[in-house]
Each structure stands twice: as structure tokens, then as C-alpha cells.
Amino acid sequence: MAANLSIFRQRDFLVATVQLLPTDEDLVGLRNCLLEAVGHHRALGVILDVSGLDVMDSYSARVLRDLAQMLRLRGAETVIVGIQPEVAFAMVQLGLRLEGVETALDIEEGIAYLDRKRGHRQSSSQQQFEYR
After folding, report:
1. Which residue, 8, 32, 67, 72, has fewest beta-carbon neighbours within 10 Å?
2. Sign of CA dihedral 96, 43, 6, 120
3. Cα(46)–Cα(37) distance, rounded to whole angstroms?
4. CA–CA separation, 66 vs 100, rounded Å?
5. Consecutive sets of 10 residues in the chain, 132 residues long: mean pLDDT of each?
């Protein structure tokens, strides 16, 4: 996988970050790696962080949408985070859609979404107790 792509584990989730505009080969490598990593790590969710992208073409949007569907079939919910305002504007203007894929502002919101999706709710008092 290319140096501008990285995957790390956060609790029961995998976080994949894209730092620079990936090539088509990078996107295919990311897809293959994530599909395998979900099973290997028994991940319940995947967060795709695209905050490093300042442009998204139709191929990238299609690969990310298809990847989210493939990961769902492997048992992992997917949320795409970090879409920059200019990228969101351009995507709408160009008719690029991420239909069926959840999005969130950032990794923190992505984790919160996946927690809600799993029905995992903690009150602030429970969180404070865990940190003592």
C-alpha cells in the first residue's frame, strides 16, 4: 500500500486515512487491504478519513462507495469522514454521490456514529468511572 495511505485500529474499528490524492492503484490497494483487515482484526466498523483530499474524482467516489458496500457485506459498517467543504461543494456540482454511505465531520464523530449504530451508549458518569 502507498505511503500516503495508512490503516490503524481504534477499539473495535479500523481507521483508514488518505493523506494525499491517491492513484487508482492506491485505491485498489486500500480496498484489498481493508477487506482483508476487517476479517483479520474482526473489526465491527471502518472509518475512512479523507480529510487529506482536496479533490475527489468520479472514480474515487465510486471506489469509496463500493468499498463501503463490500465492507458491510464483511460485517463492518463504514463511515467516511473529513470531506473538505470545497470537495463537498464540487462533488454536488459534479453530481458525485456517496449513496448508501454514511458521512461524518471527523474521526471523533465517525466513532460516535459507529457506537450509536451498535447501540453502545455510555453516559458521562460511566466514562468518568472508567478513567479513574
Report:
1. 8
2. positive
3. 10
4. 10
5. 78 91 88 94 96 91 94 96 96 92 96 89 35 34
pTM of the entire predicted model: 0.84
Output the CA–CA distances (angstroms, integers) from residue 66 to 39, 71, 96, 100, 113, in the order listed: 18, 9, 13, 10, 20
Place of cell 463490500: 70
- Domain spans, the chain: 5-131
Pure H helices in 1-132: 24-41, 58-73, 85-94, 107-117, 124-131
Helix/strand/coil for 1 = coil
108/91 Cα distance (integer angstroms)? 23
User: What architecture (CATH level 2) is domain 5-131?
Assistant: 2-Layer Sandwich (3.30)
